[in-house]
Amino acid sequence: MISKRLEHVVDWVEGNVLADIGCDHGYVCIESIKQHKVTKAYACDIAPKPLARAQAEVKSAHLEEQIQCLLLDGMVGLPEDVDIVVIAGMGGHTIIDILEKATLHRGMHFLISPHSDTELVRKFLISHGFTIEKEKMVYDKHYYPILACTYTQSEQVLSDFQIRYGYQVESSQDYVSYLQKQEMKYQQLFLRVPKKRKEFEKELEILQKRDTL
Fold it and tell me: Residue 139: pLDDT above 70?
């Protein structure tokens, strides 16, 4: 069964040929085909066992003609007909490593959902030719950001708040709750760790600037 987080990823899939990097069970590809978001998909994974699970799910859904399972190291060797890429469910450093090794084409779309180090991912994207277009925050036992971006070969400039907490984030209760949780965290740290009060005060100031964006 597809998770709430992956449902939200699929909602934003739009293109002709999808590649899901680190596909696990292949649910993103399967749902994207079923919902007519794309006409063809590649379920990609670096490990044989997850890929075997994906192959079994694809076969069960009778979608073997539209979904191909590929054993790949990230995006290395990805077919050239791909126009939208999903990279979800892994840490920010791993996502950056995948993008650094990839052969990228101008206009290629990405849906990126890191489970850690999202700030580092945003910094990488805006300094390596990607333009972040919109984001959303999804709570599914944990807060997961989803970034929609395009490889434009141009440099994007974001504020400190946008780098930390997102650019053009879809308004939702999940996002409001996430920001409130962050603010509470820094307020508590401000009181508990006197030696780093200036650092936490700066974070609180950045959070408060969201109302002016």
Answer: yes
